[in-house]
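Need the bound structure for 1,3-dihydroxyacetonephosphate, inputs here:
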Amino acid sequence: MRKKIAAANWKMNLTYAQANELLDNLFSKKYSLSENQQVVIAVPAPYLHLAKEKTQGKNQVFISAQNIYTKKSGAYTGEISVEMLQSMGIEHTIIGHSERRDYFNESNEFLKEKVDICLENHITPIFCCGEALEVREQNKQNQFVAKQIEESLFHLSSTDIQKVVIAYEPIWAIGTGKTATSEQAQEIQQFIRQLIANKYDAATADAVSILYGGSVKANNAKELFSQPDIDGGLVGGASLNAEEFAAIINALA
Ligand SMILES: O=C(CO)COP(=O)(O)O
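Answer from helper R.:
Posting the output first, comments after.
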Protein backbone atom coordinates (compact mmCIF):
# COMPACT_ATOMS: atom_id res chain seq x y z
CA MET A 1 0.00 0.00 0.00
CA ARG A 2 1.24 3.49 -0.86
CA LYS A 3 2.78 5.14 2.19
CA LYS A 4 3.97 8.65 2.95
CA ILE A 5 7.53 8.40 4.17
CA ALA A 6 10.03 10.79 5.75
CA ALA A 7 13.35 9.01 5.24
CA ALA A 8 16.68 10.16 6.63
CA ASN A 9 19.98 9.28 4.99
CA TRP A 10 22.79 10.11 7.38
CA LYS A 11 25.39 9.01 4.79
CA MET A 12 28.92 8.68 6.28
CA ASN A 13 28.43 11.20 9.06
CA LEU A 14 28.52 11.41 12.87
CA THR A 15 30.50 9.71 15.59
CA TYR A 16 28.81 7.10 17.78
CA ALA A 17 28.24 9.67 20.53
CA GLN A 18 26.75 12.13 18.04
CA ALA A 19 24.49 9.44 16.56
CA ASN A 20 23.29 8.56 20.05
CA GLU A 21 22.54 12.20 20.82
CA LEU A 22 20.78 12.86 17.51
CA LEU A 23 18.46 9.88 17.98
CA ASP A 24 17.65 10.93 21.54
CA ASN A 25 16.98 14.49 20.41
CA LEU A 26 14.83 13.39 17.51
CA PHE A 27 12.71 11.05 19.60
CA SER A 28 12.19 13.75 22.22
CA LYS A 29 10.57 16.01 19.60
CA LYS A 30 6.87 16.12 18.97
CA TYR A 31 5.83 14.50 15.74
CA SER A 32 2.74 12.57 14.86
CA LEU A 33 2.29 9.85 12.30
CA SER A 34 -1.03 8.75 10.93
CA GLU A 35 -1.62 5.19 9.83
CA ASN A 36 -0.21 5.49 6.31
CA GLN A 37 2.87 7.48 7.36
CA GLN A 38 6.33 6.18 8.22
CA VAL A 39 9.72 7.42 9.34
CA VAL A 40 12.78 5.55 8.06
CA ILE A 41 16.27 6.40 9.30
CA ALA A 42 19.21 5.08 7.28
CA VAL A 43 22.19 5.12 9.61
CA PRO A 44 25.79 4.02 9.01
CA ALA A 45 26.12 0.24 9.49
CA PRO A 46 28.07 0.43 12.78
CA TYR A 47 25.11 2.27 14.35
CA LEU A 48 22.31 -0.04 13.18
CA HIS A 49 22.09 -1.87 16.49
CA LEU A 50 22.09 1.29 18.58
CA ALA A 51 19.44 2.89 16.38
CA LYS A 52 17.30 -0.23 16.31
CA GLU A 53 17.36 -0.41 20.12
CA LYS A 54 16.16 3.18 20.36
CA THR A 55 13.15 2.56 18.15
CA GLN A 56 11.80 -0.29 20.29
CA GLY A 57 8.10 0.29 20.82
CA LYS A 58 7.94 3.16 18.32
CA ASN A 59 5.30 2.40 15.77
CA GLN A 60 5.91 3.28 12.13
CA VAL A 61 9.55 4.21 12.79
CA PHE A 62 12.09 2.01 10.99
CA ILE A 63 15.86 1.85 10.90
CA SER A 64 17.46 1.23 7.52
CA ALA A 65 20.84 0.26 6.12
CA GLN A 66 22.39 2.45 3.41
CA ASN A 67 23.59 -0.40 1.23
CA ILE A 68 23.78 -4.20 1.07
CA TYR A 69 25.65 -6.74 -1.05
CA THR A 70 24.13 -9.08 -3.61
CA LYS A 71 25.10 -12.29 -1.78
CA LYS A 72 23.55 -13.83 1.31
CA SER A 73 26.83 -14.62 3.08
CA GLY A 74 30.40 -15.67 2.35
CA ALA A 75 33.88 -14.39 1.64
CA TYR A 76 33.06 -10.76 0.80
CA THR A 77 35.15 -8.82 3.28
CA GLY A 78 33.62 -5.54 4.36
CA GLU A 79 30.18 -6.13 2.88
CA ILE A 80 26.78 -6.29 4.62
CA SER A 81 24.18 -8.95 3.84
CA VAL A 82 20.40 -8.88 3.94
CA GLU A 83 20.62 -11.89 6.21
CA MET A 84 22.48 -9.77 8.76
CA LEU A 85 19.82 -7.07 8.55
CA GLN A 86 17.05 -9.61 8.92
CA SER A 87 18.70 -11.13 11.96
CA MET A 88 18.64 -7.69 13.61
CA GLY A 89 15.04 -6.94 12.70
CA ILE A 90 16.08 -4.30 10.15
CA GLU A 91 13.55 -4.16 7.31
CA HIS A 92 14.87 -1.49 4.92
CA THR A 93 17.94 -0.59 2.94
CA ILE A 94 18.78 2.15 0.48
CA ILE A 95 19.88 0.74 -2.89
CA GLY A 96 21.67 2.55 -5.70
CA HIS A 97 22.18 5.97 -4.19
CA SER A 98 23.86 8.19 -6.79
CA GLU A 99 26.95 8.37 -4.57
CA ARG A 100 27.28 4.59 -4.80
CA ARG A 101 26.57 4.61 -8.53
CA ASP A 102 29.29 7.26 -9.04
CA TYR A 103 32.01 6.37 -6.54
CA PHE A 104 31.57 2.60 -6.52
CA ASN A 105 30.46 2.11 -10.14
CA GLU A 106 27.17 0.43 -9.29
CA SER A 107 25.36 -0.36 -12.53
CA ASN A 108 21.66 -0.85 -13.21
CA GLU A 109 22.34 -4.57 -13.72
CA PHE A 110 24.15 -4.90 -10.37
CA LEU A 111 21.38 -2.98 -8.61
CA LYS A 112 18.82 -5.35 -10.09
CA GLU A 113 20.58 -8.16 -8.20
CA LYS A 114 20.47 -6.10 -5.00
CA VAL A 115 16.75 -5.44 -5.44
CA ASP A 116 16.18 -9.16 -5.92
CA ILE A 117 18.05 -10.29 -2.83
CA CYS A 118 16.17 -7.69 -0.76
CA LEU A 119 12.77 -8.83 -1.95
CA GLU A 120 13.65 -12.52 -1.56
CA ASN A 121 14.46 -11.76 2.07
CA HIS A 122 11.64 -9.39 2.99
CA ILE A 123 13.80 -6.27 3.07
CA THR A 124 12.26 -3.13 1.54
CA PRO A 125 14.64 -1.56 -0.98
CA ILE A 126 14.58 2.22 -1.18
CA PHE A 127 15.70 2.36 -4.80
CA CYS A 128 17.33 5.64 -5.82
CA CYS A 129 17.32 7.07 -9.32
CA GLY A 130 18.00 10.50 -10.77
CA GLU A 131 19.95 12.35 -13.40
CA ALA A 132 23.10 14.48 -13.41
CA LEU A 133 23.05 18.16 -14.36
CA GLU A 134 24.30 17.54 -17.95
CA VAL A 135 21.36 15.21 -18.55
CA ARG A 136 18.85 17.75 -17.19
CA GLU A 137 20.44 20.49 -19.33
CA GLN A 138 19.79 18.38 -22.41
CA ASN A 139 16.25 17.76 -21.18
CA LYS A 140 16.87 14.00 -21.25
CA GLN A 141 15.99 13.33 -17.59
CA ASN A 142 12.90 11.27 -18.35
CA GLN A 143 14.71 8.84 -20.67
CA PHE A 144 17.61 8.61 -18.22
CA VAL A 145 15.47 7.80 -15.20
CA ALA A 146 13.25 5.44 -17.24
CA LYS A 147 16.33 3.40 -18.18
CA GLN A 148 17.43 3.15 -14.54
CA ILE A 149 13.99 1.94 -13.48
CA GLU A 150 13.42 -0.37 -16.44
CA GLU A 151 16.80 -2.07 -16.11
CA SER A 152 16.71 -2.57 -12.34
CA LEU A 153 13.00 -2.97 -11.53
CA PHE A 154 10.89 -3.95 -14.52
CA HIS A 155 11.70 -7.66 -14.29
CA LEU A 156 9.67 -7.71 -11.05
CA SER A 157 6.09 -8.92 -10.74
CA SER A 158 3.36 -6.40 -10.01
CA THR A 159 3.22 -7.65 -6.41
CA ASP A 160 6.96 -7.23 -5.94
CA ILE A 161 7.35 -3.79 -7.49
CA GLN A 162 4.75 -2.55 -5.02
CA LYS A 163 7.18 -3.51 -2.23
CA VAL A 164 9.87 -1.19 -3.60
CA VAL A 165 10.10 2.42 -2.47
CA ILE A 166 11.45 4.62 -5.27
CA ALA A 167 13.43 7.76 -4.42
CA TYR A 168 13.91 10.26 -7.23
CA GLU A 169 17.04 12.23 -6.40
CA PRO A 170 18.39 14.54 -9.10
CA ILE A 171 22.16 14.59 -8.58
CA TRP A 172 22.34 18.34 -9.17
CA ALA A 173 20.08 18.90 -6.14
CA ILE A 174 21.96 16.65 -3.69
CA GLY A 175 23.87 18.55 -1.03
CA THR A 176 23.88 21.66 -3.20
CA GLY A 177 21.07 23.60 -1.55
CA LYS A 178 19.53 23.65 -5.03
CA THR A 179 16.17 21.90 -4.70
CA ALA A 180 14.18 20.84 -7.71
CA THR A 181 11.08 23.02 -7.70
CA SER A 182 7.98 21.20 -6.58
CA GLU A 183 6.75 21.43 -10.21
CA GLN A 184 9.96 19.88 -11.59
CA ALA A 185 9.84 17.08 -9.02
CA GLN A 186 6.12 16.46 -9.52
CA GLU A 187 6.54 16.37 -13.29
CA ILE A 188 9.18 13.64 -13.33
CA GLN A 189 7.61 11.68 -10.47
CA GLN A 190 4.31 11.66 -12.33
CA PHE A 191 6.28 10.40 -15.34
CA ILE A 192 7.77 7.60 -13.19
CA ARG A 193 4.32 6.59 -11.96
CA GLN A 194 3.00 6.60 -15.52
CA LEU A 195 5.93 4.46 -16.63
CA ILE A 196 4.95 1.88 -13.99
CA ALA A 197 1.29 2.12 -15.02
CA ASN A 198 2.23 1.49 -18.67
CA LYS A 199 4.35 -1.54 -17.80
CA TYR A 200 1.96 -2.97 -15.18
CA ASP A 201 -1.37 -1.21 -14.55
CA ALA A 202 -2.74 1.90 -12.83
CA ALA A 203 -3.46 0.12 -9.55
CA THR A 204 0.15 -1.11 -9.31
CA ALA A 205 1.51 2.35 -10.07
CA ASP A 206 -0.81 3.89 -7.51
CA ALA A 207 0.51 1.56 -4.79
CA VAL A 208 4.19 2.51 -5.18
CA SER A 209 5.62 5.17 -2.85
CA ILE A 210 7.82 7.63 -4.75
CA LEU A 211 9.97 9.93 -2.61
CA TYR A 212 11.84 13.05 -3.63
CA GLY A 213 15.42 13.69 -2.44
CA GLY A 214 17.79 16.61 -2.96
CA SER A 215 18.08 19.53 -0.52
CA VAL A 216 14.79 18.80 1.24
CA LYS A 217 14.58 21.14 4.23
CA ALA A 218 11.99 22.04 6.85
CA ASN A 219 11.05 25.12 4.80
CA ASN A 220 10.38 23.36 1.48
CA ALA A 221 9.14 19.93 2.62
CA LYS A 222 5.48 20.86 2.94
CA GLU A 223 5.23 22.18 -0.60
CA LEU A 224 7.10 19.22 -2.08
CA PHE A 225 5.09 16.64 -0.12
CA SER A 226 1.77 18.19 -1.09
CA GLN A 227 2.33 17.27 -4.77
CA PRO A 228 0.17 14.34 -5.87
CA ASP A 229 3.10 12.12 -6.91
CA ILE A 230 5.54 13.01 -4.12
CA ASP A 231 4.98 10.60 -1.25
CA GLY A 232 7.61 12.06 1.07
CA GLY A 233 11.33 12.64 1.02
CA LEU A 234 14.77 11.09 1.32
CA VAL A 235 16.68 13.66 3.33
CA GLY A 236 20.44 13.99 3.67
CA GLY A 237 21.90 17.08 5.36
CA ALA A 238 18.71 18.23 7.08
CA SER A 239 18.24 14.82 8.71
CA LEU A 240 21.37 15.45 10.83
CA ASN A 241 19.48 18.08 12.80
CA ALA A 242 16.73 16.75 15.07
CA GLU A 243 14.62 19.90 14.97
CA GLU A 244 14.81 20.16 11.19
CA PHE A 245 14.04 16.48 10.57
CA ALA A 246 11.13 16.49 13.06
CA ALA A 247 9.67 19.43 11.09
CA ILE A 248 10.11 17.43 7.86
CA ILE A 249 8.28 14.48 9.46
CA ASN A 250 5.45 16.81 10.42
CA ALA A 251 5.31 18.09 6.84
CA LEU A 252 3.99 14.66 5.78
CA ALA A 253 0.66 15.53 7.38
O1 LIG B 1 21.22 12.35 -1.16
C1 LIG B 1 20.29 12.72 -0.47
C2 LIG B 1 19.52 11.78 0.34
O2 LIG B 1 19.81 10.46 -0.01
C3 LIG B 1 19.92 14.16 -0.39
O3 LIG B 1 20.92 14.81 0.30
P1 LIG B 1 20.67 16.34 0.76
O4 LIG B 1 19.33 16.36 1.46
O5 LIG B 1 21.83 16.64 1.68
O6 LIG B 1 20.66 17.16 -0.49
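Comments: Residues 182-199 form the longest helix (18 residues). The chain has a mean pLDDT of 97.
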